Amino acid sequence: MRRFLHALTALPLAALALTGCGSSGADATGGCPHGKVRFGVEPFEDAAKLTPAYKTLGDALRAKLGCPVEVQIVQGYSAEVLAMQNGKLDLAQFGPLGFVFAARRTGAEPVVSFGNPDRTVSTYKAGIWVKKDSPITSIAGLKGRTLALSDTGSTSGDALPRYALRKAGLADSDVKLQYAGGHPQSLIALTYGKVDAAEINTQQQATSTAEHQFDAAKYRQIWASDPIPNDPITVAKGLDPAFRSRLVAALTSLTPQDVAKVGSYLDVQPGPLVPVTRQTYQPLFDLAKTLGLTEKNL
Amino acid sequence: MSAPERLAVPPRPRSPRTLAAGTVVAAVVVGLHVAAWRGTEMDLGMLADGWHGMARFVSEAVPPDLTWDPVVRDGLKACLVTLWTGLLGTTLSIPFTAVLCALGSRAVNGDATVYQAARGIMSFLRAVPDVVFALVFVTAVGLGPFAGVLALVCNNTGVMGKLWSEAMEEADDGPAQALRIAGAGRAQLVAHAVLPACLPQLVGLALYRLDVNVRASLVLGLVGAGGIGFLINQSIQEFRFDQMLTYILMVLVLVVAVDLLSSLVRRRLAA
Questions:
Q1: Where are the domains of chain B?
Q2: Given a cut of 90, is residue A291 above it in pLDDT?
Q3: Which residues of chain B have pLDDT under 70?
Q4: Confidence of residue A14 (pLDDT cuts 50, 70, 90)
Q5: Where are the transmembrane segments (chain A) (predicted)?
Q6: How distant is the Cα of A182 from the closest Cα of chain B, in angstroms?
Q7: Beta carbons of B237 and A12 less than 8 Å apart
Q8: How close A274 comes to chain B (CA, Å)?
Q9: Which chain B residues are within 8 Å of A17, Cβ to Cβ?
Q10: Fewer beta carbons below 10 Å: N end or C end of chain A?
Q11: Which residue among B41, B138, B233 places its CB closest to the CB of A152?
């Protein structure tokens, strides 16, 4: 539902994304390209919550850089990747799997992600949960049962659970997969008893527990993924190198308070933004390959 | 013998007031368009510069991916789900629509309170978008096409109820009056005068709604109701624009087929 409403509002952006000109037009002094930094964000939460959180982050970044920062919460990573591909974004935050597509298609380079207080990269885990009294005790037990996922292309809400099915020797068709439309919707499908099992990642678990919508004692987790590094913030490939260095320096010098609000929605303790490389996300490149998420002409 | 002289067309009287009103209206319309142009950040230069962004998008979509397994096969299955959802959403709402529009039509119902209540219910059902109904039903029956059908039934009852009751009110009143004078009761009036007069119109409107509902069930596909809408969304998420094009072509065929069928039936009814 929310996706659909966002889709309506994102159509102009998608149209904009398709009409790129591919050049970043930066000057050679490391000044602001086109007079501002255009920062796209793939929504991992309600846009209504993310907008004020990113305003705090954007304002802090503007103070460090001396460039206006224009944050755009996009509808999904596909519009964001196309916008970056066509030179319409300088800076973009992607979900881990969205980043794989962005890197493959646009050469987007990851520079920072959300850090813990001890400056390590924060992580989260995908998970599959059932009701406490359910006879299902493992992934293999999902055969013929209904499993709620969030939406297509989601790292923890689609790709990782399907990968887990593969590893347990099940094909997608052995399980009744139902896309609920988002992480909160997937959780609700389980709490309303409309599905046998549902994907609930650690971030959603924390958010829903805090909102008293989920009590882990009444449910049982039958699978958890390896830790996934949190969303990378990436820079466009064609960005002027001098400006790129300034941008990375500004990002890593933001205080934990500047990013705390955004981090709280990612279930991260307040910490700074810490450097990451493509290597950090290698497991997700492998995952995309295993699931056959390969585009034509690439 | 010369041709009869023609009178010149008399000039249209133009009062200063008409001219002033016309100028004001034109200025307002132009002003609105300027505001809209700016508000939507229209920039033809950007569009011209960005042609190769679009060209790349199109080149990735063409040619469409016509692999039978899984693309075309899944697409056909999903098209059927979309069609069934639209069909049931239309036909299952007919009984509810019939009751509501009979109560909400002056030609049938004389009680003002009941009339207003029926109109109110129809307005409410129209005001709530089908995607909202779909979400409500998802909590009751779970995810899947069933929730989509129920959502369409609700929304369509409101819309078709309004269309039907208006058609009934616009129908020729003559036969009904003649029967009333002859002493016919309300039920007899409906059966022998109102319905025969507007049945072809009611069927035509139902077919038009079928056409709309098939397209609406596309959007419901995004709310977990399944169908071809979901596959289009999925192919975009995976950057398989060639598959997206295949599914869009299937939708095109489906919509045109439903449209042709309904116009054929309507023509037969009118004949």
A1: 90-270
A2: no
A3: 1-3, 107, 221-225, 271
A4: very low
A5: none
A6: 10
A7: no
A8: 28
A9: 53
A10: C
A11: B233
The two domains A35-117+230-291 and A126-225 share their CATH topology (first three levels equal): yes
- Please name the member of A85, A194, A297 whose beta carbon is closest to the beta carbon of B143: A194
Interface test with B, best of A152, A158, A173 (most B CBs within 10 A): A152
- pLDDT tens, residue by residue, B186-203: 778 888 888 888 888 888
Nearest Cβ partner for A76 among B46, B142, B237 = B237
Q: For residue B40, give the nearest of A3, A12, A293 by CB distance.
A: A12
Q: What is the pTM of this model?
A: 0.76
For A35-117+230-291, give the CATH class.
Answer: alpha beta
Taking the Cβ of residue B150 and every Cβ of chain A, the question of whether any pair is shorter than 8 Å is answered with no
- Name the architecture of domain B90-270: Orthogonal Bundle (1.10)
- B59 close to A (CB below 8 A): yes
> What DSSP string runs through chain A?
-HHHHHHHHHHHHHHHHHT--------TTS--GGGSEEEEE--SS-HHHHHHHHHHHHHHHHHHHSS-EEEEE-SSHHHHHHHHHTT--SEEE--HHHHHHHHHHH--EEEEEEBPTTSSBPEE--EEEEETT-S--SGGGGTTSEEEE--TT-IIIIIHHHHHHHHTT--GGGSEEEE-SSHHHHHHHHHTT-SSEEE--HHHHHHHHHTTS--GGGEEEEEEPPPEEPPEEEE-TTS-HHHHHHHHHHHHTS-HHHHHHHHHHTT--S--EEE--GGGGHHHHHHHHHTT---TT-
How close is the nearest chain B Cα to the Cα of A76, in Å? 8
Topology of the domain covering A126-225: D-Maltodextrin-Binding Protein; domain 2 (3.40.190)
Say what the pLDDT of residue A30 is. Answer: 61
Report pLDDT digits (tens) over A141-195: 999 999 999 988 889 999 999 999 999 999 988 999 988 888 988 999 899 888 9
